[in-house]
Amino acid sequence: MSTISEPSVSADNEWAPLRSVIVGRAENSCFPSEPHHMIKATMPSEYQDQFKPYNPFPPSILQAACHELEVFTAILEREKIKVYRPKPVPWIETAGYTGAMPRDGLMVVGNTIIEACYAWRCRRREIPLAFSCILDELEKDGSVRIVRAPEVPNPDPIYDDADNEDQAHPWAINNSRPAFDTADFLRFGKTLIGQLSNVTNLKGVEYLRKMVPSGYTVEIVQVEDPHAMHIDATIVPLRKGLLLYNPERVTEAALRRHQVLSDWELHACPIIPTTRSSPPLYMTSPWIFLNILSLDEKRVVVEAEDVAFAEWIQGLGMEPILCPFRHVNSIGGSFHCATVDLVRAG
Q1: Which residues contact 82 (CB under 8 A, 6 or more apart)?
Q2: Fewer Cβ in 10 A, N or C end of the chain?
Q3: On the CB side of 169, how many CA atoms lie within 13 Å of its CA?
């Protein structure tokens, strides 16, 4: 009797049972270096002077972040989830940033992996350097389609006149060529919901609409966040029919405009995060605690010290799995950022 093997790539939502995933690596991560107006628009003001070329994160932060990613990987493997890891890269030698946040650069839609077209120059080689070995392996499955990032013009016009405070558009990039981070989009079955941001423009959205498989649509939600960069601490689908949202960035009315959410429970997160300095949040706001990963429609991975949040989502019928991740937070993300779900069953 023949058996049907599980596909190498198949996911179109954020909550079905996770079977296979990429988990990033923090080794050798450096502060990103981009023009001042971009750093000013997206990074916490108290750390903006750290965002300069060839400036590694403190070794103690990176060592702890690497350990946290190992603990996280062990949790996933304990749940019989197949984990792929990228190869370490000497980011300081490439004027790059990190391999810890693959969600920013790769997105699975059905059987298709789509690579981001980064606005940030320091991230342009991130996927080829750290993740090509994984993509090459997955591509051996003839059912898998991989969409590599389009060629960026040289010189790149993405920042031309974007630092003009009198400009008509509010973002740190212009609309001269497609730009998007894949972390600006979430999957709700055949509908993707995303946002325009300081790293995602209209041409990027138009490009993504052309690249998703037939039958999928891409919608843009209205957010109220001038510092917008990645949507996964703004709206958080826990399971089908249940979504959390950050009330400082988006309204229930804006979410209800999307037909796919018309009959969902939408909960404004009532927990107001406090700022912290140890370890520092160099690149994110304290709302990073919303950046969680659903393993299925019941279980969700939450940062170990976010106890009040864990208790609150327990009241919504979820089972939090606590995992230390504060040093990964320090270098720019949390559980959703640090993963790319390759296979979700169902």
Answers
A1: 19, 20, 21, 343
A2: N
A3: 17
Give the pLDDT confidence of 49-74 residue by residue, as tens digits: 999 999 999 999 999 999 999 999 99
Distance CA 191, CA 1 (A): 37
Return the residue matching tokens 């062990």. Answer: 74
Rounded CA-CA distance 292/97 in Å is: 22
CB burial of residue 136 (10 Å; 0-12, 13-18, 19+)? exposed
Cβ contacts of 250 within 8 Å, gap of 6 or more:
221, 222, 223, 224, 225, 234, 235
CA distance 115 to 223: 24
Model pTM score: 0.96
Catalytic residues: 181, 230, 337
| Interatomic CA distance for residues 208 and 36, integer angstroms | 28
For the chain, percent of residues with pLDDT exceeding 70: 97
Question: Residue type at 21?
Answer: V
Give the span between the Cα atoms of 222 and 42, in whole angstroms. Answer: 18
**Which position has the token pair 């999957």?**
187
Backbone phi, psi, residue 344, to 5°: -125, 125
Structural contact between residues 12 and 110, judged by C-beta atoms closer than 8 angstroms: yes
Which residue is listed with tokens 């946290």? 68
Residues 177-203 pLDDT 10s: 999 999 999 999 999 999 999 999 999
Contact (Cβ atoms closer than 8 angstroms) between residue 19 and residue 108: no
